[in-house]
Amino acid sequence: MHANKILTWLLVISAVVFVLAGCGGAATAPTLAPGSTSAPVATNAPVATNAPAATNAPVATNAPAATTAATTAATTGGAVEITFATWDKDFAATTQPIVDKFNDTNSGKIHVTVNVLGAYSDYWTKMKVLFAGGNTPDVIWMGGDLMSGFAKQGVLMDLTPLIQQDKIDTSQFAEAIVNMYKYQGKQYGLPINVDTEALYYNKNMFDAAKLPYPDATWDWNKFREAAVTLSDQSKRIYGVAIRNDEQTVWGNLLWSNGGDVLSADQSKCVINDAKGQQTFQFIQDLIYKDKAGTPPGAVPGVEFSSNFRTYFASGHAAMKLDGVWRLKPDSDIKDFAWDIAPIPVAPGGKPAYYVFGLGNSIPTKAAHPKEAWEFVKYWASKDAETALAKSGFFIPALKGTSDDWLKGWQDKGKPNAKVFVDAINNGRLYPYPTYYNEMTDKLYAHLDNIYLNKGTVKDELDAACKEIDALIAANK
């Protein structure tokens, strides 16, 4: 998931007010001497064999009020109070059982309070203010797309010495997500989960059209044929809800077609090569030539970029490309039956999935780094990752615990949820250089023109690469 780059003064001002109210003062990190909590137990499960990749996430609109000193004292009983920052109220609810178990185990010693900093984009706006002011939470959810930039700035603690001290075996986690939180050979976060994507489809619409359900044999041609057949312009129904998004849509399609954004050594932009042009021409044609993909404004009242999922949930789109984190929210859909299938591959191509994962990191200005590490370390345990699995929201990063996640969905009538777990083995890493934000701004400006049909695919990709190559040169 990449962060929203549009930061208004109003949002920054509100962020300052919020964070000063919600977080305690920072102090210089003391010498750490964490305890000897055992490392997670090795278990068996699929592991990403390729270097990793990156989760947009559902958003929340409200953040909880700051805990008062009186309430904190009554709750913690004199224990060291640490703050754990996250985004989205639903995600926070998912983490609460893990926090509660940690608090119970460490009663009288350490107490963790969850602090929801609002929606995903708001979270990063406020986090930048916190980093700048040195008034940070003790533990934060970190995104692999932004980690290297923050690590370069020196605002994240290097966890490598603590991992070695407490003998935590990082090979027990999905390799992709471990690598995602490394910068210049140092570990700046411990993995939480693994995200992959799939093709969601409306079974009722396929049944009505007498079409077979999608499966692993689907390529772009079968995908397009079904999308065209399922579209009905007179009813504002489209074959597929689609948007400009690297993780859920075009990243998977581009890699499947043998393309990429940057060269392997990240020295050159290559998204404008023949494979890239073919991929984005397929997407543009699906929307404007075939009229089977949702263009902006396709359905009145449904905003294109952020709420494209409403097309699918409201029955205005028969399919969508989306992430594993949508399984639980989409379970609320009652008007039709739906399922998931592998993402269609390019003709002659291979499956390739955008693998991403969140991590727990400790800011260098955390007021209580010793206690913060104890919490991060606990989350790396089988106990915590199993609890995460049973929440249904996330596939845990700890090998073996994905079985609990999958069983939960199989018990709910979604046996094809295995598609998300299997996708880990075909995971790929999206390039996350320290200038990722700037690169994304430049790239998306031109990709938006493709999605809006305001420019040719070749011209826009060439222009994007020209700007990105200049950015790469400036950062050497």
In short:
By secondary structure, this protein is α/β, with parallel strands linked by helices. It contains 19 helices and 15 strands.
Q: Overview of this structure, please?
A:
Mean pLDDT is about 85; it is low at about 1-75. Strand 4 and strand 5 form a beta hairpin. This protein has helices at about 10-20, 70-75, 90-105, 120-135, 145-155, 160-165, 175-180, 205-210, 220-230, 245-255, 275-290, 310-315, 325-330, 370-380, 380-390, 400-410, 420-425, 435-450, 455-475, and strands spanning about 80-85, 110-115, 140-145, 180-185, 185, 190, 195, 195-200, 240, 315-325, 340, 355, 360, 395, 425-430. Strands 2-1-3-13-6 form a five-stranded mixed sheet. A four-stranded mixed sheet has the order 9-10-8-11. A two-stranded antiparallel ribbon has the order 4-5. By secondary structure, the chain is an alpha/beta fold. Helix 18 (about 435-450) runs antiparallel to helix 19.
